[in-house]
Amino acid sequence: LIVILMQLWQCKSILFAAYLKDDQMTCVLDQLEVSSSSLELYEMQILWNKTFDECILICNLLHLENKCNAIKYYQTLMKCYLLAAPINSTTTETQHQSYKIFFIYGCLKGSYYLHEIGNYSMLVSGGTFISVQLEILNLTIITERRPTVDSIRSKIIENNEKASTGDCVVTCYARSWHNGCNAVVYNPKTSLCTLLKHETPKPPITFTHHGMTLMLLLHLVLPWDVKVNSVRIEATHNISYELRAESGTTKNTEKIRDPNTKQAKRISTKSFVHLYRYMEVCEVNIIHNRKIENVTRVQVILNVRSLNRCLHFCRPWLRQFFYCAIIYSKHNYKCELLIRSTERSSTRFVDDEEKLAELLNCHADRQSQRRNNPPPMQYYLKETGEICVLEFYNATQLRGFYPIETLENVENIKSCIFACRLRYSSYICLAINYTMKKQCTLFRQDLRHKIYNVESQSLFAEILFCEPGTLADEIFDF
């Protein structure tokens, strides 16, 4: 059974069971709101290019060492904050400068509802929830269906015409910060969307007739691809009830799509890459269902040895046309560049050996600190079958890196790089410092950390990226 570390908080929490599909684990999380002043006092680590599930797992692993018990996550940036919050932390409902964070009470193998886990066996069932997936915002909102008559106890904020239930929910969510909107009633016949501020709900009474017009209570906002098994809702009379997914692994979660979204769902993953020749970090959309529409090919480049290099060629087209995608084949080292087609609608399909990706937003990456660095170098790691591209720093005082481990008697710098790669999954190792004494110090990224002084006559390098490769790739432009 899971061990739940319960604490007393000053405001209502939203407890839920998240199912991490790739790891086949259920984790119990508690969403709470904390003031910005409290957040600044927490010990914090920042990780980039992490999914919400990965952020949860890393924090849970560090929990045993008392280094993490909560996370804050930015979906669009794939930015994960690992927080070590003190036991006497307090939360706020009134301060304007506040943030929602997720406390992690523990994880266990398998898929469970909350009522199937130790301390929550007495939860009253409140029926099932609807997962409203808002593709335009990359968000999922956990909502509860209630009969329209329940809205009598709500304050009406405003009435608008909207094209769909999804549009109505988006409007409520967007305005919740200003007017407290947390419920909607949408009538599909008249397209009337009513925004409501609903007080603490009463325990639900089972009703069987789901008419066309219902009230939806907005309970929990999460990143797009998070799977939720059940949610605990605090009601009046000190009663809590559980809203459950249709199955333990949320297989039958109902979706309400945004009206502007095409019916054929595109399966994709957001990620971030170093375009080091431009000293930028760019958001990339990796498309998994091997299909892209409304594009035309503008250039084919041969002998491109890495996906990262192919994305570099895409960057000027993004600047000029505000869109660029690539089809990359590692098998024949071919890079195709695509832009939006304005004259005709065209669809491209790729085979299993090709990678399909869109280059999205780019931003400068510590250009002043990196301006005097030499050109990056690449190393072949036989043990992992990778080529890793490293940028060596000339500066001796660096910000943004935190030492996590020092290894002795490391034979050479390539062995130091390999040690960093081995520890990537546990420590998120992103940089190394190798000395003449054969010491190898491994670093993670921490933008809040104080200046690190690089030892004299040593080499400090950041691992920009690693991709599958061969020894021959060391001599090519990777």
UniProtKB/TrEMBL annotation:
The Apple domain, residue ranges: 388-466
Record protein name field: Apple domain-containing protein
